[in-house]
Design brief:
homodimer; mainly alpha; Arc Repressor Mutant, subunit A; Tetracycline Repressor, domain 2; 2 domains; about 80% helix; elongated; DNA-binding
DNA sequence: GTCTATAGCGGGATAGAC
DNA sequence: GTCTATCCCGCTATAGAC
């Protein structure tokens, strides 16, 4: 009966990721995870000690993936307008692949805010922000863009990229479209977002 | 011991609203509601039959409040750019007052999407959308704004208004600000959003 | 209308046999 | 490593006394 250790462990992890991301912490039971991974409750606790510990692993993964992508594109040295376009592209690319992640993170942050304080500080978002602020300042100097408060601008970019995915469930109802149709709409929407942001910046 | 009926009922309702909106359905127990309203579990079920029924009442309230406000401003007949500004003002006004509502609605929609299908259809968002599309068409004709796909534009407005509130918990950490400071930032941010949207539209 | 007591279930975790 | 059986807790809902 002895199976490859990492194979079983991996299967539990995969199933747990799917369920936690889809249904959140509270709504996912260890019994659900055991059933879906064709093991049992004891196995889940054998490999991961506790439900909460398993959850932390999943959450860390998801959060890091999102953050790495954002930070790396934001600090590239492309020409300014190309940078903007690349950042938006990059957000959409990752969110099309993992559309449930923002809702997942926002839900769980809401339930347990302390969890993030330290985690975020470790990543040093401050320096990324400063670099972006510098780029904006340079463009203002050159007169290619309007006066642009960096924090407000970044918040707008984030809003325009992330919200359509958060709004997915509600949006597909309002638009009377299937989830698939809505997903296609979102991809198309990206083009308008790029154009929208660049128009808003230009003098 | 017999108290004014509506007084006790109202107290339970107030407490339930606060807890459900703050912590969501799953994380709020009838015991919590009973304790916080200084009654007991039996009383809550006496007045509201079940936890789920009580929740539905709260959810309906919150959702209607949001929707009424949005729809009424969107269909006003102000001059176009004033309309845009008023809509944004109106969103922010209501979200400053009830900042937890978007997260609450999004969480619960995610858990139980069917609940909304019918509810939304009843409100006839279609006619509101058509009216807005007409206004946009007129401005395009006049040459005052760029070519603007109505659905994409509305989604952008929604994103820019709602996301800062959804992002509140995370955002205040990232910005290393208290919730109060972040709230002030948001109010200020509104001005930039108005300017941003109008720039993005203008030719 | 109010409250206590409890039924009855589903949850997380673990002991202990294999 | 694996699995069954079980402990113990917290939850919703309700019966029944007052």
């Amino acid at each position: 009966m002895k199976q490859n250790v990492s194979e079983v462990k991996e299967r539990i992890l995969d199933v747990a990721r799917e369920l936690f991301i889809k249904n959140g912490y509270k709504s996912t039971s260890v019994r659900d995870i055991a059933a879906a991974s064709e093991t049992n409750v004891a196995m889940v606790n054998y490999y991961f000690h506790s439900k909460y510990n398993l959850f932390e692993i999943i959450f860390e993964e998801a959060f890091n993936r999102l953050q790495r992508k954002i930070f790396s594109t934001l600090s590239s040295d492309l020409p300014f307008f190309e940078l903007i376009e690349t950042v938006i592209d990059s957000y959409y690319e990752m969110l099309v692949e993992y559309p449930q992640i923002p809702v997942f993170i926002l839900n769980e942050v809401n339930q347990n805010p302390e969890r993030l304080s330290e985690r975020i500080r470790k990543k040093d978002p401050h320096s990324v922000f400063l670099q972006m602020a510098k780029r904006i300042g340079e463009e203002e100097e050159k007169g290619t863009i309007k006066e642009t408060p960096p924090l407000d601008f970044l918040l707008n970019m984030l809003s325009l990229c992330v919200f359509p995915f958060i709004f997915k469930d509600l949006g597909s109802h309002v638009a009377e479209a299937s989830q698939e149709e809505y997903s296609k709409m979102i991809v198309n929407h990206k083009k308008y977002v790029v154009q929208f942001v660049i128009n808003a910046l230009k003098k």
